[in-house]
Amino acid sequence: MKILHICNDFSNSKVHVNLYSQIDDSGLEQIVFQPLRRGNEIEPSVIKFSNPNSKIIYSKAMSIYHRLFFRKKINFLYPDLIKGIDENKVDIQHATTLFSDGALAYKLNKLHNIPYLITVRNTDVNLFLNLRPDLYVLAKKILQNASRIIFISVSFKNKFFKNFYFKKLENTLSDKVHIIHNGIDDFWLKNITLPKKETNLSFLFVGKFDVNKNVLNLIKALNVFKNKNDKVTLNLVGGGGSNHKKVMRLVKENSWIVYHGKIFNKKELKKLYLQNDFFLMPSKFETFGLVYIEALSQGLPILYTENQGVDGLFDSGVGVATNPWSTKHILLSIEDLVFNSSFFKKNIAVLDFDIFSWENIYKNHYKKIYESLN
To answer: Where do the DSSP E strands lie in the chain?
Structure first.
């Protein structure tokens, strides 16, 4: 079986690399097509396939023009896609987004009858769905012709089908809809830590300092919380993004905020998890949020975003869902998280983290889907 992945964010996503590595371990042949944006560099070392016939192919670099004119973008990318494959030897397509990647898979399906599945992600729900109603008819065709439709979480599925246009399609598409969450790196699964019995007020944030990750509103809420609880510490890992300078200014002005820079070494990051009591990341939009699961694996109750990412993933409470648009609500959620920490820790202690193994996710879900379409 040969699988074609159409993946516009391949070089920047651990999710895709982890999944494709599992597929590679199973011996299947893969082609990854990555559309390039101007300024992107080709990174052939992102993954090393053991299958000698697997490969990564790239498009010519797109310009800002292609961001504005979606259909011209698809027509620009398609020749590079078809040039890099033998369409007669591709058995299945997997498009990693509904709109950008799905449109290419749909076109290849119409011209060469290759079945495809799509994954609906953050950009589909929170960008295209809100800003590009002119593409709704195309998206409907992509969905109707897809063999399978994957949502990363129940919350994302529910949000997608709340849209006035796609709501009427939910029943007709239900037989091919699957909920398949992402996994985490094996390092965390091999180094699970039970929650600490004692609870202090050390909080951890890991992520980019941009508008979406919402770190400025988090700091505002914690600053108010600190007025009532003096022994508060916020540890920040990551950086970059549009708010980096503002965050660094706050770090200089407040001794209770500690910046650790970007940490890529998992052992070092694990040490920092263990030094903290809670994980906070009130993102405005989140497809899944692997870092939440990493934090849970180290015994930390989490503050996450309502109706996004991991919201609805767990039957028992492991943290608090917050409204990221309201600093007051973030504050109340932090208070709730601290007050009910013992309850959350008991639930975290009995979580089955095997469900976040990429090996299990592939064998129990994707492998079965691929085989059913071949």
So the answer is: 2-6, 29-37, 55-62, 92-95, 116-120, 148-151, 177-179, 202-207, 233-238, 257-259, 278-280, 302-305, 319-322
